[in-house]
Amino acid sequence: METKKFTIGQLIKGYKNKSVSPREVLDYVFSNIKLYEPKINSFVTLMEEYAYKSVESLSFDEIDSKPLWGVPVAIKDNMCVNGFKTTCSSKILEPFTPIYTATAVQRLIDAGAIVVGKTNLDEFAMGSSTENSAFFTTSNPWDIDRVPGGSSGGSASAVAARFVPLATGSDTGGSIRQPASFCGVVGFKPTYGTVSRYGLVAFASSLDQIGPFATKVKDVEAAFSVISGKDEMDSTSHPYVFSPVDKNIKEYKIGIVKELYETEGFDSEVLDSLNNVIRLLKSEGCKVDFCSLPHLQYSLPVYYLVATSEASSNLARFDGVRYGLRVEGKDIIETFLQTRGRGFGSEVKRRIMLGTYALSSGYYDAYYLKASKVRTLIVNDFEKAFGEYDCLICPTSPTTAFKKGDKTNDPLSMYLSDIATIPVNLAGLPGISIPVGLDKKGLPIGLQIIGKPFNDNDVLNFASKIESIINFEAEPSLLGGR
Amino acid sequence: MIDRETILHVANLARLELKDDEVDKLKEDLGNILNYFITLNDVNTDNVAPTFHPFPINNIFREDIVKESFSVDDILSNAPSSATTYFLVPRIVEEKNGN
Fold this sequence. Notes:
The complex is a heterodimer of chains A (482) and B (99).
Chain A: H1 8-16, H2 22-40, E1 43-46, H3 48-56, E2 72-76, H4 103-110, E3 114-119, H5 153-160, E4 166-170, H6 177-183, E5 186-189, E6 210-214, H7 217-227, E7 253-257, H8 268-283, E8 287-291, H9 299-314, H10 332-343, H11 346-359, H12 365-388, E9 391-395, H13 411-415, H14 422-426, E10 431-438, E11 444-451, H15 456-470
Parallel strand pairs in A: 2-3, 2-4, 7-8, 7-9
Antiparallel strand pairs in A: 1-3, 4-6, 5-6, 5-10, 9-11, 10-11
Helix pairs in contact in A: 2-3, 5-6, 9-11, 9-12
Chain B: H1 4-13, H2 20-37, H3 72-76, E1 82-83, E2 86-87
């Protein structure tokens, strides 16, 4: 099979004209994984036996009613699949085997998708490089000395390496879009609430959102149309119904976010690539203008106070009593202290500490409450911008993929790689990263498109139009010779 | 900006046992991070309501109807220690005067 044909659309076409079978595709998937996975390390758990069994239960009669019929999918290892370990790449959850399946995953399965494995992440989705995994660091398929981004680095690299045409991620501050950008694939964070989070291990509940990775916008759209919508198991889920739009690119009024363009820290090559997109859009007849969101400069402190506060509360459940690791102490308090002290890695501890501090008596007003108020101003800035523009664009990340180890000793510089994605979560907006070019080192550059809440279809349509103009066809050459 | 005592106090609130070198590292890291976050004080937030959730979400009520749920065995299957229908944990209440 040619890797160019390894998209959902091409697979379904092949299945329909019987030029290939889902079983043959699985053979291809697992032989590829066996060849290249030792270099890339996308997966925490492979589900080969389960995948072949699932394929057997597919009936050809259902190919028209199941939009993901026979499509292999990888699942980020913070989403439950009944009977298979869900580790969150943490020692504290290493022994945990869920007894139910996350709604988003179940909907993929019900639509005919075949789960082939669980992918690596920064522990509890806290990180931007996958280096915080308690097990191993995933490599970027474009350059194995570099990180794939994070926290959904396993899923992004698995799609980039063409192990799978589809994978799931979760995005709290950029964990889908930033790794998509680093790995040269498409990553979509839908509007907050459009996809159920039942069965997703919670990180920061007012920010967390599940979304898909693929190589083409149409493919993430296909997955999103399946996983979105109300779920009675998640009371924060929205009764959203996806309906595709097909609007001409000329009809879009696009804002370029000034604060994510004129700031230091953005690579000149990344900005050159954005300028190129702006030129193309203008030549297509699109209205493009700079717009200012003055409070965006405060996004990082707001995010790290809000997200860590929520995380410190959400992660209180890992205490060695009901599931996961237990380090037995002489009494229950000592058991809590030792279990958590040994079970969590250093970044998770840092965030629990920061969040606990921000919520603690005497500091709540100065940190958590203050951050929540500035969050309002950021939300208002977006509302104002969307009064004038249909979509906003900016680089997904200030740089392309950095080298492993480059930022592990400096948490603040690591946090800065999410500067352009974080504001989107604070306001609950839909955002997508699509590959738009390569830098001089041959590393992919991502473009982020941000839309109005619940206008996910508009964002996807616009992304798809840009995609066809730019026609990014590059693939990681490191895996060449297949 | 943040002292050792505060780190130990917060670690206890969070039920995290920290090694000495972890305390030192956290003291430095949290100090730097909070120092960077001080920029928030530049923003006037008088009369600004906080946002705790991106969209207004209210409590959602459902009918109180008993439905089939997980079996006790399934729930206990992940417990580090259990007996019959219970999770087992180390002693919580101390013994006093032989009681």
